[in-house]
Amino acid sequence: MNEIKAIISDIKEGNIKPIYFLMGEEPYYIDKISDYIEKNVLDESEKGFNQVVMYGRDVTIEEIMSSAKRYPMMADKQVIIVKEAQDLSRTIDKIEAYAANPQATTVLVFNYKYKKLDKRKKSYKAIAKSGLIYESKKLYDNQVADWIRKVLGGQKYNIEPKASQMLVEFLGTDLSKISNELDKLTSVLPKETIISDKHIEENIGISKDFNNFELRKAVGQKEIVKANRIINYFAQNPKNNPLVMSISLLNSFFTQLLMYHGLKDKSKSSVAKNLGVSPYFVDDYSSAARNYPMRKVSQIIGLLREADVKSKGVGASQSHSDILKELLFKILH
């Protein structure tokens, strides 16, 4: 995130590179930088003749280079943005010829999503020398809650750990989706608000009582009645509570619980660091470890794998709700 701020800060100060090659698995930051350039480098009066958006599937590298070599009309710069540039992956190395001597009055932006250039190639080295290469890396699951906290903190909001975890478990690691939901929250809540699970339920529609976070907690504490209530709610609302998500999150929980059993140092800070979780959730693992010895945890991981196979229709014709009910019964008994 600091790297993004530095790139945008440089652009604001007029330190603009002739080439921005934005690549990697996480499209959110690629769009963030590209959109900022598209909106801010030129004045509205200059954009008509001097700003072009191209799409990788519709153009060739030769056409892009030809456009980039032109001079701007009645402006200091022209901006060319190539979206979906990954569609040019077979010929992208040809950009080396232009990158070796780019037009100083052109700002050429490549949105090269889900792929990256080979650092060993001349094209990479040429772009790195004359322009800027940014690799947008996908966040791990255990990094997303902290990302949410930092994003909200920058806008003068705070969020409770349970609330951020609900967002992660409902939306996954898609930062664009999460950002859209955070925008909903910040548009209706005053600054300095500490966002709670109630705010999430009221404004985003994720139930604060019937979600995978609460299911995992109920299973960990062996609260059989509560766990069954939650899965019955899931059965009635399958679209918002897909089986694959429940299995995945339970698998992560029990895999971490297996790691917990193997730790010599079970202090809160040690557990949080080794399991990659917030210290707020460490007590959940301590409690679950008392309910599930290491041997039982290993068996449960095997049960989760079987359920995952069944959910894909292999060797079973059960409904998803029946698969989850059977799985839960075997875990809890």
Task: Briefly characterize the structure.
With 333 residues, the chain is α/β, with parallel strands linked by helices. The chain is built from 17 helices and seven strands.
Descriptive tags:
Zinc Finger, Delta Prime, domain 3, 333 residues, alpha/beta, Rossmann fold, Helicase, Ruva Protein, domain 3, five-stranded parallel beta sheet, elongated, two-stranded parallel sheet, 10% strand
Molecular structure report:
With 333 residues, this protein is of the alpha/beta class. The chain has helices at 2-12, 27-40, 44-50, 61-68, 96-99, 122-130, 141-154, 161-171, 175-188, 197-204, 212-220, 224-236, 243-262, 268-275, 282-291, 294-311, 320-332, and strands spanning 19-24, 51-55, 78-83, 106-113, 132-135, 158-159, 194-195. α8 runs parallel beside α10 (197-204), α11 packs antiparallel against α12 (224-236) and α13 crosses α15 (282-291). It starts with a helix and ends with a helix.
Average of per-residue pLDDT values: 93
CATH architecture of the largest domain: 3-Layer(aba) Sandwich
Shape: elongated
CATH superfamily of the largest domain: P-loop containing nucleotide triphosphate hydrolases
Number of helices: 17
**What's the arrangement of strands in the largest beta sheet?**
2-3-4-1-5
Annotation, overall tally of beta strands: 7
Helix-strand topology string: HEHHEHEHEHEHEHHEHHHHHHHH
The helix-and-strand class reads alpha/beta
Low-confidence runs of at least 5 consecutive residues: none
**Number of domain units:** 3
Reported by name, the CATH topology of the largest domain is Rossmann fold
Provide the gyration radius in Å: 25 Å
Helix content: 55-70%
Task: Report how far apart the termini are.
Answer: 45 Å
Main sheet?
A: 5 strands, parallel
What is the C-level CATH assignment of the largest domain? Alpha Beta
Strand content: 5-15%
